[in-house]
Sequence to fold (723 residues):
Amino acid sequence: MDGLQDPELINVQTVSGTYFQTLGVEAQLGRVLNQNDDSSEGDHPVVVISNAFWKRRFGSDPRILGHKLKLGSTVFEIVGVAPPEFFGTMVGDSPDAFAPLSMTAVIPPGWGGYRDNFKESLYIIGRLKPGVTMQQATANVNVLFRQILLSFPNAKLSQENLSRLNKSHVTLKSMERGLSYLRRTYSEPLKVLMVIVALVLLIACANIANLLLARSTARARELAVRQALGAARARIVRQLLTESLVLALAGGALGIAFATIANRVLLAMLPHGQQAVPLDVSLNLRLLGFTFAVTVCTAVLFGTMPSLRATRTQLTGALKTGSGAAPASARTPLAKILVTLQVALSLVLMAGACLFVRTLINLSRAGMGFNKDGVLRMDIDSTLSGYKDDDLRLTMLFKQIEARVNTLPGVEAASFSAFTFNEGSWNSIIFVPGMPIDRQVNVPHNIIGDAYFKTMQIPLIAGRAFGPQDTAISQRVAIISESIARKYFPGVSPIGRTYSIGSPDPGDTAAQVQVVGIVRDVKFDDIQQSDTYIDYLPYSQREWGFGDFEVRYTGDFAAISVEVQEAIHRISRNLPITDVMTMDELVARSYANQAIIAKLSAFFGLVAVFLSCIGLYGLMSYVVGRRTGEIGIRIALGAGRSQVGWHIMREIVLLLAVGIAVGVPIALMGSRLVENMLYGLGAVDPLSLGAALLFLLCAGLLAGYLPARRASRIDPLMALRYE
Fold:
């Protein structure tokens, strides 16, 4: 950048010259990119920066136009600033700068694949003409798609390729909500959480309804007096509904205050490395309107029933009733039905929480094929320092770094690799002489250093590891996983045999490699993958300028990470190091979805049980309070205190039993709906259901024990005097 500013890793998106015009986006300062900026390759080093980057790096300097921004080894001129409301077209990925697509080759890491007619690397965005429907546009695009592919001079028009082309279809999608990997990743978990929140809301509403029922019973005489003095039934109902609404609005206000904090906590739980996920989770008017509508509806819905019930009191009976024995209306089963409903829903939520927590435990304990403990991992991208992938100095640089880091105290082994786990991959079909071609299997290829297997503790089953003999001019070699050996070399030893990567042409010697070793299968894409096809190639024979650096260490992570970075910078001061973490953290990122669901479902499950216990406690306390005189008479007539306590506990056990009987079938049906989100568990998991049952029973019995204990300690003299 201009001046003496420190280098910074930024997110640059390359776009065509028509990108901003197609989206209808104008610059807030300067200009946006145009077709002239993208007319010829490599000679238009201009960028448009985002509003956030302009504020963060340049302090919103209005004189920013014309300033220079160095990307890799090329200096770009800032020609515009995007408007503050524009964050790009990918939800959750907010670029710092936009550069012409024609400059891709000079922007690190210098990918040039966009020039390949048959490489899938770009999104195509278009704007429909007036009057053209999506269906019409889709039909036209598919005709054009076929014509374009057939017109390429390097098109391989074999019968097989033509057959695959005839089966291909382009599907147009609306850009109304943008492209989103976050939507694909988190939509299903968020739907589950919405159902959980709805159930918790239902439990809370049932609690409020019970509270209002108890209050209406306690105020029966007051309301009867009002009606006797001429108050209309509609007016009393209106008053009680107003009280319900005030209560709901107060709770809603507290909920909104809590939501402003909880939203950011939820966002912080997303895996995002060193950069925050660029999502606006602040409350907006639509969200507040929805929340207000839900609050009002729940208040009206669950306040109407107690209000109507309160106004149906028989005036004569209510006016005669004292504070002792409860009238018949006080013994309505409605309150018990609501408590039973709470117990059933709580069981459903706790059973789901147990399933998700056990899934998280299974994922954290899953076998990876490598030892993730005690491994430091960091990103090192040499292309950001001006190196090219085919720079002959890179191999020597990597070997110097590995040798220097290996001399540090506490370091057992160190190695570079293109990928490690859950970071994407370079995939292609492999062709083995004498074996049928399986185009359904795309084998991931990892470019590694000689000590990679030692660093990751991946066992070598047969053959040898890479060594000094594997050079740029020697026979190209590969080490394959057990799965590849079983699939492509059945019944024979693959050691010494050859196969081709990406090319079926036997004359393409650059694509051919010789198998020198077999290693144990490892999880590469994600923990839940079933196939573990992967091969390994030495970086001394494959140009690769960026990727991971792994260090197996003993001792303190913080101290080792600092020493490793200092050792690297003593060799190459400008080599950028980012995303320093342990392999444990990297693996944990891969099941962040399940971790979020497990944590939040456990939280809401506990809240549900807590609310149910409050409802159970409130109901039984109310029952004991209304039956104080009756209990006192029982004790005075010789009933034992334990008998009185058991009499109350029997009702509690009955409520819990009925709630559990209702909840178990619902829990079993619900678990089948989330079966695809579980790992290592079936939809019916007796341990999870049993744990939920045990926890709910213990909590419910504890909540009911307190009123039962109070009932057993009632003084009969005080009770009779009260009566």
